[in-house]
Amino acid sequence: MVLVLGVLLIMVAGHDQGGTLAVQPAPRQHPSARPVPSDGPRTLGEPTAVPVGATSGSWAVLPGDADFAIVAADHQGWRVIEVATGAVTRWHMSGLGEQTLSRTLFISGDDLVINPGLGPADVLRVAPDGAAVTIAEHRQAVPTIGADGAVWVHDGLSDDFGGAASLVDPDGSVRERIMLPTLTVPAVGIGDALVVTTKSGTAVVSDGGSEPIRDDGVVVAADARRVAHVICDQTRSCAVVIGTMDEPDQHRLLLAPGDVPGGYFGSGLGAFSPDGRWLALPVFTQSSRGYGGRGYVAIIDTRTGERAGRPEGSDQPFTSALAWSPDSRWLVFAAGEGIDAWHAGTGGVIKVDTEPVQALATW
After folding, report:
1. How many Å apart are CA 111 and CA 141, to the nearest integer?
2. What is d(CA 362, CA 280) in angstroms, rounded to the nearest whole number?
3. Could you tell me how far CA 92 lies from the centroid of its own chain?
4. Deepest in the core among 122, 254, 287, 323, taking most CB within 10 A?
């Protein structure tokens, strides 16, 4: 993790160098990376997700007609909380030895995608019934949306921190593979492309080449149309810049001095709501980075660039997880040791769960 932070700081310092990101298909194997599947569908391993406990709910976790499931991971496994009933099922992944689940967790198609450990490791797909397969070895999964169930994976700790990125189908076969230049950090996968931060700015890259977005800033959230950057000066005065891929500088929100979004450091990425109306971004204050206080979640109206909410979040950048409900009405996020939910209609915050959480997703 120290390497990741160091690389990102180098990248921010080098944004004024200008230049164009060069991306090419990968005809060669990166020397420091183990292979991903490339010879057709196959399963690399046989991990098993085992339910280890369940409680039947007696009332709804959230008011109204909210009906979705929250997936909350900790170092032992994950729990699935049914919002409509309050029922909780706990899962444990067997066969991982001493490895624990990482903070990379998201939904792809109908499956849960997770990485054991804190660095590149096996990338696992887990179906709602617990059926699990390994789709790539020694890789880091990149949060991916709009790829028909495929997932981008990256050898995130290669010697030059560029390395190979592959779009892997649910059966483990590789759909696309590209090589990334030095000091390129993938942020979000959008369909058959990656949104990345580089030493010369940000770009959308695919096996067909690259399209620059900005020549400064760090990508902290993206979907198929929208993108959010954070731009900080040497005094750590930061602005959140929101726009589209074609017009990335439509709105700017200046944060208080010393407030830095988690994605600036390579962790705690934000997320646009599925309907595109809201951006949620974990932010850490000077006191929270010194472990003397708690961070917060900046919720921004993408139509105006104005802040719509600031609920208290986590004081740890690596437990700054958040996820939107499929209908965009609820944001669930790590708050202290548990989970809170913010309602987009009223701005109210409700305590959902009081147990530790490292990563969140919604089903």
Report:
1. 14
2. 15
3. 21
4. 323
Q: Which DSSP state fits 329?
A: S
Of 243, 267, 242, 261, the closest CA to residue 253 belongs to 242
How far, CA to CA in Å, does 117 sit from each of 77, 121, 317? 12, 7, 17
The region that residue 334 occupies, defined by phi over 0 for left and psi between -120 and 50 for alpha, beta otherwise, is beta
Report residues of the chain scoring pLDDT below 50.
1-43, 158-160, 288-292
Which position has the token pair 């699935």? Answer: 80
Closest by CA to 223, choosing from 301, 167, 277, is: 277
CA–CA distance, 142 with 156 (Å, rounded to integer): 10
204, 199, 118, 112: which is closest to 162 by C-alpha? 199
Query: Which DSSP string corresponds to 226-272?
Result: EEEEEEE-TT--EEEEEEESSS--SEEEEPPTT-EEGGGGTSS--EE
Tens of pLDDT along 134-154? 999 888 899 999 999 999 998
Q: pLDDT tens digits, residue range 235-270? A: 879 999 999 999 999 999 999 988 988 888 766 789
| Both structure tokens of 131 | 């059926």
- The answer to whether the CB of 40 falls within 8 A of the CB of 74 is no
Looking up tokens 């790539």, which residue turns up?
136
Q: 3-class DSSP state for residue 178? A: strand
Task: Give residues with Cβ within 8 angstroms of 56, minimum separation 6.
Answer: 85, 87
Question: From CA 156, how far away is CA 169, in angstroms rounded?
Answer: 19
